[in-house]
Design goal:
alpha/beta; Rossmann fold; 2 domains; 6-stranded parallel beta sheet; 14 helices; globular
Length: 371
């Protein structure tokens, strides 16, 4: 089967949607499907082949919010002759153009709805207008709408009218990369946080975590490793310094997957204090940490929150509640036996439920049904 994926960006760009498309496509390619990805050339590495996936990268003269405006996208999709087209929100430019071309070419359109489109200020008005107009047309045009966890159907106002099309397909983990690793020493009271550091990812809750670390540091030794790059890196460095956290918060920049796995293993706890149920699509950070047999602290809006709580893989706190977050961190730092038990539970859970093979089974079934 010929499958065309149209995300806004693709590997080596690092982000939740980009990882999702890469691993999903790689698994489908290994099953004998022909996968083509059309996306923006960000970062500028040019077209080529990655792990059996043909990638065609397009120039873009501008970005609007977090979406690359690839002016040649419609023509590029028209040149293809796929059996199915699979697009992704929350980047409406690529999704809407894919929908129009799919209708003109008579090809079934599949949509992964990672999260709602939202914004602040003028962007809030623009996203609101989109959500009551073009979004409805996109959802109506889609053969199936994939979401990563069932809670998103409850949280999104815009999906409820299309629940008959919604299919839950949880993401997976690369178990070859993210796994328990032996540690030479215990660094003690160490937290880990991963996100892009830009205004589009403010909802990841780093400001809240810094406030919590400041509270704990008044009476306990603690260190926080922060992974990620972006235009707000200096802002967060300044915020940490202003809270008196020099020598306690370490900004590591972007890390490749091997180094990322190393730090998941070095840390006692990975923390994902996401603030918004509309913006948090799933939270792959939690799965990667659990695959390394580490406990997590997540907010209630995280995609894995129900499993974290129900399977005893860590602690779940109310979104935006700094006191709950602080208490949860303190509890786990003071209870190494609880951390070990939760880490073991976490490892068992991801191995059982969160594999890219299981994800691809669900996606592939829907593709074949439409062909």
């Amino acid at each position: 089967m010929r499958i065309l994926q149209t995300p806004a960006r693709f590997f080596p760009y690092r982000g939740g949607v980009e990882n999702y498309v890469y691993y999903s496509s790689r698994e489908l390619s290994r099953r004998g499907h022909r996968i083509t990805v059309i996306c923006a050339d960000e970062p500028p590495v040019g077209s080529g082949s990655i792990d059996g996936i043909e990638v065609r990268r397009l120039a873009y003269p501008a970005k609007l919010s977090n979406t690359n405006i690839t002016t040649g996208l419609a023509e590029a999709i028209f040149r293809e002759n796929p059996d199915v087209i699979h697009t992704h929100l929350p980047t409406p430019w690529s999704s809407d153009i894919s929908a129009v071309v799919s209708l003109l070419k008579g090809r079934p359109l599949f949509l992964t709805y990672h999260n709602d489109i939202s914004g602040e200020g003028v962007l809030s008005l623009a996203s609101g207008l989109y959500n009551i107009s073009a979004l409805r047309l996109l959802l109506a045009a889609s053969r199936a709408i994939f979401i990563t966890h069932p809670g998103y159907l409850e949280n999104s106002l815009f999906l409820r009218g299309f629940s008959d099309k919604v299919i839950v397909s949880p993401p997976g983990v690369d178990f070859d990369k993210f796994k328990p690793l032996p540690q030479d020493k215990d660094e003690g009271n160490t937290l880990f946080f991963v996100s892009r550091l830009d205004r589009h990812h403010h909802y990841k809750g780093l400001d809240l975590l810094l406030e919590s670390v400041e509270k704990i540091s008044r009476d306990s030794a603690i260190r926080l490793y922060v992974v990620g790059g972006g235009v707000l890196l200096d802002y967060y460095r300044t915020a940490a310094r202003d809270r008196g956290l020099e020598g306690k918060v370490y900004f590591l920049g972007e890390l490749d997957s091997n180094r990322l796995a190393e730090y998941y293993n070095r840390a006692d706890i990975t923390v994902m204090p996401s603030l918004s149920s509309r913006q948090e699509g799933f939270g792959m950070t939690a799965l990667e940490a659990m695959a390394c047999a580490k406990p997590v602290i997540v907010s209630s809006v995280a995609g894995a929150a129900a499993d974290v709580k129900g399977r005893g893989c860590g602690l779940v706190v109310s979104a935006g509640n700094v006191n709950e977050l602080t208490d949860a961190i303190r509890y786990l730092l003071r209870n190494p036996q609880a951390r070990r038990e939760m880490g073991n539970n976490a490892y068992d859970l991801v191995r059982e439920k969160y594999s890219w093979g299981r994800h691809a089974d669900i996606i592939e079934k829907e593709y074949l049904r439409a062909s």
